[in-house]
Amino acid sequence: MTRKFDTDQLVRTENFIGGRWVPASSGARFAVVDPADGACIAEIADSAAADARAATDAAAAALPAWRETLPKERAAILRRWHALIVEHEAQLAALISREQGKPLAEGRGEVAYGAAYVAWFAEEATRIDGDLLAQQQRGKRMSAVKEPIGVVAAITPWNFPLAMIARKIAPALAAGCTVVGKPAEDTPLTASALVLLAHEAGVPAGVLNLITASRDRGIEAVADWLHDSRVRKITFTGSTAVGKYLARESAGTLKKVSLELGGNAPFIVFDDADLEAAVTGLMASKFRNGGQTCVSPNRVYVQAGTYERFADLLAQRVAALKVGPASQPDAQIGPMINARAVDKIARHVDDAVTRGARVLTGGKRLPGLGPNFFAPTVLAQANAGMLLCAEETFGPVAPLFRFEDEQEVIDAANATPYGLASYFYTNDIKRIERVSRALEAGIVGINEGAISSEAAPFGGIKESGYGREGSKYGLDDYLSIKYLCQGNLA
Ligand code: SIN
Questions:
Q1: CB 469 within 8 A of CB 167
Q2: CA nearest 12: which of 290, 240, 210?
Q3: Cα(160) to centroid of ligand 1, in Å?
Q4: Residue of 185, 260, 406, 469 marked catalytic
Q5: CA–centroid distance, residue 372 to ligand 1 (Å)
Q6: 215 CA distance to ligand 1 centroid (A)?
Q7: Average pLDDT of 176-198?
Q8: Which pLDDT score, from 0 to 100, does residue 3 have?
Q9: CA 289 to ligand 1 center in whole angstroms
Q10: Starting from the edge strand earliest in sequence, which strands make up the sheet with 397-403, in order?
């Protein structure tokens, strides 16, 4: 019999290690704040290396028994966890919105999205098949079996506080791995709530451990995992700079690493596109989570013949977006996560305007709503010399670049070290074939802005990282292949 929690009861302020809620060993705490108004939501455990070590001890101790469970036993636990997440959709959504700031409807959407990964990997757990290899010699049998990689460290971001950790923990548990996790310091409460529900669903003590930490102590805690040879895998979603650090530091113990890093997604609209559909697709992908999404279009390329009409249509739609705190029922864009994020957005817009961009709508902070609000913005006359072309803005800003021909826009779209998502709109079937092959990205949306799905392989190329999350490929990152060679059979 599982319990039902209200939102406040889902709030946990300690680490979860070895099946128990325990304070940080130093007793330190830090404040989690509402990004809309800076109000303190909770004071929670501020962990460091000793806590990370204790979590690894618990995960390493739990591994031998967990890896021996039957896939269908792990699947049953994951299915119960999924059911509990769905049952607590409203409470979890409220928690997400409170600590992350996204409008409540988006919070609910995120719960459903994260839960879908748990359901997906419950199914995938039962399909971890190996191969009996074609016989090469009489009396000899060769096979390949898949084994859990071991203890996994999951380090997760603030933009999707539930979905990102769910899509790392679920495949790890499905594969038979045990987990140590650390959510971003801005949004740790949702992750703790999720772990609480996993425990209620029957995940055994030590199999799933979570520590929370402020920015500086968190670096120290993660460093302990990077250098501990018992941790066999690091999975991370976040910035490219941090991803490179994790890859470098974990090389000492040669861990398997999956990195879902920054993007600088191009969104291309050709003259022959369905304009209405392109604007709708851009609204969905650009303004989801206030633009704080790694697959959010960062550069919008519009062909010359349609540029002015597209810009007008888009500016009208963006100007109509309602900005407000998550507590405002009709809000469509919430606050940005923190002051650093708003400062970056403002810096990008100011730089663009200085270099010749024209503000069609927005372009400014909204201090009347709170320090972290920024108006949804459309900029015309963007060019490659602007900061926002080189860096991911991670906010509600759509800069419009004009282009003349297909090769020119493919070259521009690919002129970035990143390669996560890309999008293009056209009604020409031959162009669809050419452009989808030419774009250097792990994900291509073709006449579609909503590309995320638990059934699809999510991940990038180039400096957007490696590894895939979700889909039938998503378990591979948590498994290693063992070759068995049996002789003297004849
Ligand atoms: C992300 O922003 O990191 C993930 C977005 C998604 O899963 O759609």
A1: yes
A2: 210
A3: 7
A4: 260
A5: 21
A6: 21
A7: 98
A8: 87
A9: 10
A10: 358-361, 377-380, 397-403, 297-303, 265-269, 421-425, 443-446
Tokens encoding 485: 């060679």
- Rounded CA-CA distance 379/18 in Å is 51
Contact predicate 70/50, CB 8 Å: no
| CB of 464 shorter than 6 A to ligand 1 | no
Of all protein residues, the one whose alpha carbon is nearest to atom 7 of ligand 1 is 452
**Catalytic status, residue 485:** no
Angle of helix 163-175 relative to helix 71-87, nearest 10 degrees?
A: 160
How far is the C-alpha of 468 from the C-alpha of 465, rounded, in Å? 9
Tens-place pLDDT, residues 219-272 = 999 999 999 999 999 999 999 999 999 999 999 999 999 999 999 999 999 999
Which atom of ligand 1 is the closest one to the Cα of 157? 3
Average pLDDT rounded to a whole number, residues 344-367: 98
* Atom from ligand 1 closest to the CA of residue 469: 7
Active site residue 260: yes
Query: Could you write out the DSSP letters of every residue in 193-219?
Result: HHHHHHHHHTPPTTTEEE----HHHHH
42 pLDDT above the threshold of 80: yes
Place of tokens 């190996």: 130
Establish whether residue 178 lines the binding site of ligand 1, counting it when its CB lies within 6 angstroms of any ligand atom: no
Greatest pairwise CA separation for the chain in angstroms: 82
Rounded (10°) angle between helices 163-175 and 188-201: 30
pLDDT for residue 383: 98
